[in-house]
């Protein structure tokens, strides 16, 4: 911790992001979403409403989906964060949920997509074979203004199939 | 839409927490899950000079089930309580209500005790605290005290907690044997704040209704318990005339209108949800 005259006190925070230990120095009020985007340049996490309603900023904290806009970076000290980049960070290394979104046209503008990918990745890790109704419920905390959700529900079902075919891919993501 | 600056405290024991809160007085605010507090800070509706983050306080994340109650510590996440098998077996109403609290991503971070301390009339868990006659375990610089749920809530977002006090745990009381419960709410979208919601508990002894009570979400200023026993005692649950409680329900609630629903609509909804919840609990 350092305190300079006339400035906010800064805190050193060590956290694991997508399997890599990172250290940042931030004011206490830095939201985790902003720490990921600004301090760590991981801009895959999108910030929509910034008050917990839209779900775009959802990341996994120790494997559990949480809103990164409703957490301070200082509170993430010592925790493991998985962002959409950790669900597959290149066209060659996409996770099952990302591949399913492409196959099923589960996105249009793509703004909400990172929150869906992280949410669905965590959901399928716990519920590998959901019904369509369960899939719909699983994504009920994420807003999409383009697709009308039909193809996202299809993508959840398809991702479950893909993850079942290659179970290692899913477990890598949750690590 | 960013929170204003604040000084951050991260105590690791209840004693440290209370000492810090005692020093800060009205300048301090407890941060638990933050799922209600952080939006308020981001919208600059509140600007506390100090936040006391209790997430690293050892021992507050425990769920304890005894013959009389379920004791839930201040940092137990909604999702942890929702998934706890022993807690579900002891008080099914907890899971019945927790499933209605926002979305899984919010429940993974938000705390049950925090939502009770926040005392939002639209919150599910304050209504559950009322109906289970929960006991609030409060600790402050002058020691510990216990407050009954019926004395805890004072108004919208207001409780008897002092600024330097921490709600350390809540003990939800177990219902007598033969009690069945249900929780139903109606929201415009799943996970939204409910337009109206109700928790009911009915106790059946020797095949007839012995005690029936309800508590409400979003249609009363303060969560409280509505006794419905007089209207229903002695009836068989399968054939009970639930409409007998209509007048009691309407006299108990005081819904307000907003852009989502008129007060009259909420009245209609609260009556209908009560009948449905009683029907479901009686099954």
Describe this structure in words.
The complex is a heterodimer of chains A (175) and B (283). Chain A is of the alpha+beta class and 175 residues long. Chain A is built from six helices and five strands. Chain A has helices at residues 32-39, 96-103, 113-126, 132-138, 150-165, 167-174, and strands spanning 10-17, 20-27, 58-61, 64-67, 80-82. The model of chain A has no long low-confidence stretch (mean pLDDT 93). By secondary structure, chain B is α+β, with helices and mostly antiparallel strands. Chain B contains twelve helices and 14 strands. Chain B has helices spanning 14-24, 37-42, 78-83, 85-90, 92-98, 104-107, 112-118, 124-131, 149-152, 229-232, 246-252, 263-282, and strands at residues 7-9, 28-31, 50-53, 63-65, 69-73, 135-140, 143-148, 153-155, 158-159, 166-173, 179-187, 194-205, 208-217, 226-227. In chain B, the strands form four sheets. Chain B has a five-stranded antiparallel sheet with strand order 4-5-10-6-7. In chain B, a hairpin with a 2-residue loop joins strand 6 and strand 7 (143-148). Chains A and B meet through strand 4 of A and helix 2 and helix 6 of B.
Can you give the helix content of chain B as a percent range? 25-40%
The two chains with the largest interface, and their residue counts, are: A-B, 30 and 31 residues
Q: Could you report the average pLDDT of chain A, rounded to the nearest whole number?
A: 93
- What is the percent of helical residues of chain A? 25-40%
Count every beta strand of chain B, where a strand is a DSSP E run of 2 or more residues.
14
Which overall shape of chain A is indicated by the principal axes computed on the Cα atoms? Answer: elongated
Strand arrangement across the biggest beta sheet of chain A: 2-1-5-3-4
Structural class of chain B: alpha+beta
Order of helices and strands of chain A: EEHEEEHHHHH
| Helical segment count of chain B | 12
Strand content of chain A: 15-25%
Distance between the termini of chain A: 30 Å
Radius of gyration of chain A from CA coordinates: 17 Å
Instruction: Please give the number of β-strands of chain A.
Output: 5
Strand order, sheet with most strands of chain B: 4-5-10-6-7
Rounded to the nearest angstrom, the distance between the terminal CA atoms of chain B is: 48 Å
Average pLDDT of chain B, rounded to a whole number, is: 97
Biggest β-sheet of chain B: count, sense, barrel?
Answer: 5 strands, antiparallel
Strand content of chain B: 25-35%
